[in-house]
Amino acid sequence: MDIRKLSDALGAEVRGIDLNEPQEAATVEAIRRAFAENLVLVVRDQRDLQPEAQVRFCEFFGPLGKRSRPADTRHEKSDEPAEVMFVSNRRENGRYVYTLPEGEMMFHIDQCYVETPARATSLYAITVPEEGGDTLFGNLCAAYDALPVDLRALVDSHRALNVFTYDSTQRDQVGNPSKRREHVQPMVVRHPVTSRKALYVNRLMTWSIEGLDAPTNEQALARLFDHEERPEFVYRHKWRKDDLVIWDNQCTIHARTDFDPGKDRHLRRFTVAGGPLRT
Length: 279
Prior knowledge:
The protein has one domain: 4-Layer Sandwich (Double-stranded beta-helix), CATH 3.60.130. Helix content is about 20%, strand content about 30%. The protein contains 5 helices and 18 strands. The strands form 5 sheets. A 7-stranded mixed sheet has the order 1-2-3-16-8-18-4, with helices on one face. It has a 4-stranded antiparallel sheet with strand order 7-17-9-15.
C-alpha cells in the first residue's frame, strides 16, 4: 500500500489495495492515520465494489451512520443496506427517484442541522460523466488557523443556527420554515483525533450567528464563507468510475460543480456515525 498527498490543502490517495478483500490490521491503522492527517482519502480503481465492502471500509473509522432523510423518501432497492443513499440523477417513470440529482451545490457540511452530524461521508462512483460533477473539498482546520483576529474572536465565542431543507442545493432554497430541519452548533469544533480546531460554518446551511443583529450577521457570515472557500484551502476531485472517496465531515466543507443533467451520474453513499461535537 502507498499513500500519496493529492494537494497542499488536503487529501491523499491510497494506492495498492483492493477493498473488496478484508485488510490486515496494520493496513487499517495506516489508513486511519492517513485519514486523520489528510481529512479526505481517495481510493481509485475499486472495480465492482460491493456495498458490504464499502460498509467495511467506513467501519474502519467508526460505526455506520443512520440515514438522516425521513424513511418515506426512500426509493432505493429493498435489498440494499438500510443505511445506503444514492446521489443520482437516474429517473423512474420520468421522475428523479434519488437524492440531489442535478446542478451545482454550494459548500456545506453534511447533517450540521442535527445534534450529532455524521463523522464522515463516503461516496462510491458507479457511473459519472466525463465532464462536470466534480467535488470540491475545503480544509476547515487550515481555514481556522488563518482567520483574521476579529473573526477568530467571533467564532470562538459564538454559536450559529444551521438549517436545511432536503434536496436544496442553493442557499435561497433552504429557508422554507415548514420543511426545514435546524440545529444550533458551535462555530468552532476540534478534530476528534488530532484535536486541531476547525471552523464549523458553511455557505449553504449556516443561517445566523446567535446574538448578532441582521446587518452584522450578514456581513460576518459573508466574510467567513469567502475566507474558508479560498483556493489555498481547497482540493478539487475529478471523479472517475470506481472511485471510492471518504471525507471528514466535521473538519471539511464540500461542494459540487455543475454537470450535464443528460449524463448519468450515480454514486452510492454511506456515512460514519458521529458523537457530540468536540469544542
